[in-house]
Amino acid sequence: MRISRRTVAAGGWAALAGAVSGGVFVAVAEVVALLAAREAGPLIAVGSFVIDIVPRWAKELAIELFGSNDKLFLLSSLGFAVFVAAAVVGILELWRRWVGVALFGVAGIAAVAATVTRADASPLGFLPSTIGALAGAAALYLLVGALRRWRDARDHDSATAGVDRRRFLLFTGAGAAFAVLAGVGSQLGSAATSSIAAIRAALHLPAPLSRVTVPAGADLHLKDLSPLFTPNKDFYRVDTALSVPSIDPSNWRLTIDGMVEQRAEFSFRDLLSMGLREYAITLTCVSNQVGGNLLGNARWLGVPVREVLAHARPRNGADMVLSRSIDGFTAGTPLSALTDPGRDAILAVGMNGEPLPLEHGFPVRMVVPGLYGYVSATKWLTELKVTTFATDQAYWTPRGYSEKAPIKLSSRIDTPRIDRSLSAGPTKIAGVAWAQTVGIQKVEVQVDGGPWQQAQLAAPINADTWVQWSLDWNATSGSHTIAVRAIDRAGRLQEEKRTPIAPNGSTGWQSTLVRVG
Predict the structure, then answer these.
(1) How far is CA 455 from CA 89, 218, 297, 486, in A?
(2) CA 385/CA 106 separation, integer angstroms
(3) What is the pLDDT of residues 261-273, one digit of tens each?
(4) Which residues pair with 304 in a beta bridge?
(5) Distance of alpha carbon 304 from alpha carbon 392, whole angstroms
(6) Neighbours of 177 (CB within 10 A)
(7) Would you call 421 helix, strand, or coil by DSSP?
(8) Total domains in the fold of the chain
(9) Cβ atoms of residues 67 and 236 within 8 Å
(10) Which of 36, 409, 434, 509 is the most exposed place for a label (fewest CB within 10 A)?
C-alpha cells in the first residue's frame, strides 16, 4: 500500500500538534503545582513512581553510568518519552477523532494516581495533573481540528485551505510559545518563591559542645588525592527523591513510636537544645563499585540517636528502627547499632560547618557509621518506628537488598588515574582506605604483579573515617598495572574476590592501568 506525500505531511503536522499539546499539558500542570501543590508536578510524580518500580539491575546500571546525575537522566528521559508519546497521540487523533483526546485523559488519570499515592501527597495533589490533562486535551482537539479543516480544504478550495493553514500554524505556534513560557515561568517562579533556601542560609546552628580533633599528619596534601573532608558541593548524592523536599525547620517534627513505652515527638529546637556535638564520619553508598566515588568524608553536627530514642524507651524484643523520610523512603537499621554507646550514630543537622545542604537532608538526617546508607542514612527524616525485622521491611529490602548491610573493608586508588598519562620519574601512588568502626591497620600496593609493598598511612582521625595512604614509585615508560588492598586493625585482609553490589555491597581489590610517557 502506497502512502501519499499529503498523508505523510499531515501525519507530521499531527505529530507536531500532539507534541505541542503534550507541552501544554505539562506546562499547565507545573503552573498549577506552583500555585496549589508544589510537589505534585506530573513529571516528578511519574518519575518517582518509575523509581519505585524500576528493577534492581536498572537502578544499579543508572547509578553506575550517571552517578549523582541519575535523576537528571531520568527526568530527561521522561521528558523525551512524553514528547514522543504526545506526537503519536496527535497522529491517532488525526486518524480518528477523540482517540487522542481520550488518551490524554488516560494520561491525566495515570499522573493523578502517581501523585496522590506518594507519601508526601497534599490534599490538592490531584489538581495539577487534572487541570494539565484538560488543557492538553483541549489544545489537541483545537489543533488537530484546525489541521483537519486545512487538509480537507486542500482538495476543494485553495483560498480556504490557505486560511486554514495559517490558522493551524498560528494556533500551533501560540500553543508552543505558551507551553515554553508557562513551563519556564513555573520553574522560575518556583525558584523565586521557595523560601527554604533562604531560611537555611539564615540559620545559625549553636556551637557544638565538642569538636573533632584532627591529628597532625591526617592530610597528606597530595595532588589528585581525595581531600580529607569532602566539600559539600562534591559530596555524592544517591536517593529516591526526584525533587528535593522543602522542609521549614520551624515546622519539622520527628515522631518516635512503635514498640516503645511512650510515644515521643521532637521539634528542631528540641534537638538543638540537647546540645550538638561534632563527629567525623565517612558515608558510603551500597552502589559504590570497587574503586568508585560514591563515598565521602565529612564533619557532622548532631545528637546521638540513642539519646533521642531513650525518651521513648524501646521495648524488649525490638531489634530494628524503621526510619522514614518525608518522601516515603524508609531504612531499616539494627536497634543495637543506634543504641550502642561505642558507635556515633547521630541525627545530623550540620555538615562541614554549615546547616545540612537541602539535597543532603535539610533540616535533619541520620548518619550511622559502619552501615551502608540504604539501611541507615535517611535524609529529610520525619519518623523513627521501633519495630522488628520480622515485622517490617525497609524500602530496598523487597527490591533484592539485604536487611543488614555493614560496610565492607575497602581501599581505592585516586592517583595515578587511568584516564591521564603520567610522566616517567619519581611520583606518588595514593588513595584512601576505610574499615568503619574498626579502622585501617595498613595498605599494600602491587605494581605489575610484583611483591606487595606497604604504603605510608596518614594519621587516622578515628575508626569511622577513611584514611589517606601513599607510596613512592619510580615510574618507567610503558603501561603498568597497579593494585591495592587493605588490612583492618582486627587483622582481616580485604576480600580479593569481585562480587556485585547486590545484595549488600561490592568486594574486590581495585586494579588500574597506568600509562607512563
Answers:
(1) 63, 14, 21, 10
(2) 37
(3) 999 999 999 999 9
(4) 346
(5) 24
(6) 12
(7) strand
(8) 3
(9) yes
(10) 36
Within 8 A by CB and 6+ apart from 81, the residues are none
- Residue 201 domain-assigned (yes or no): no
Residues 343 and 260 in one domain: yes
Q: How many CB atoms lie within 10 A of CB 98?
A: 12
| Residue pair 42/129 in contact by the 8 Å Cβ criterion | yes
In 28-53, which positions are buried (b, 16+ CB within 10 angstroms) versus exposed (e)?
A: bbbbbbbebbbbbbbbbbbbbbbbee
Per-residue three-class SS string for 219-250: CCCCCCCCCCCCCHHHCCCCCCCCCCCCCCCC
Question: Do 361 and 384 have their domain in common?
Answer: yes
Q: Are residues 246 and 384 in the same domain?
A: yes
CB 403 within 8 A of CB 286: no
CA 484 to chain centre: 29
Residue 261: half-sphere exposure toward Cβ, Cα within 13 Å = 8
DSSP bridge pairs for 422: 516
- Could you say which DSSP state residue 458 is in? P
pLDDT digits over 179-235, tens only?
888 777 666 555 544 688 889 999 999 999 999 999 999 999 999 999 999 999 999
**Mean pLDDT of the residues in the chain:** 90
- Of all residues in the chain, the percent with pLDDT exceeding 70 is 94
CA 162 to chain centre: 51
> Grid coordinates in use for 96?
480518528
> Considering just the CA atoms, what is the radius of gyration of the chain in Å?
28
3-class SS string, 468-493: EEEEEEEECCEEEEEEEEEEECCCCE
Q: Is 499 helix (H, G, I), strand (E, B) or coil?
A: strand
Q: What is the DSSP letter of 193?
A: H
- Residue 434, strand partner residues: 410
Q: 380 and 425: one domain?
A: no
- Residue ending a domain, choose from 399, 421, 456: 399
| Residues 34-47 pLDDT 10s | 777 767 777 777 77
Q: Cell numbers of 472, please? A: 613512592
CB under 8 Å, gap of 24 or more: what pairs does 353-358 form?
353/299, 354/205, 354/232, 355/200, 355/203, 355/205, 357/232, 357/235, 358/196, 358/197, 358/200, 358/244, 358/246
Tell me whether residue 212 is in a domain: no
Q: What residues contact 47, with CB distance under 8 A and at least 6 apart?
A: 71, 74, 75, 78, 242
Give the predicted TM-score (pTM) of the model.
0.81
Query: What distances in angstroms separate CA 33 from CA 42, 154, 431, 514, one per listed residue?
Result: 9, 42, 46, 51
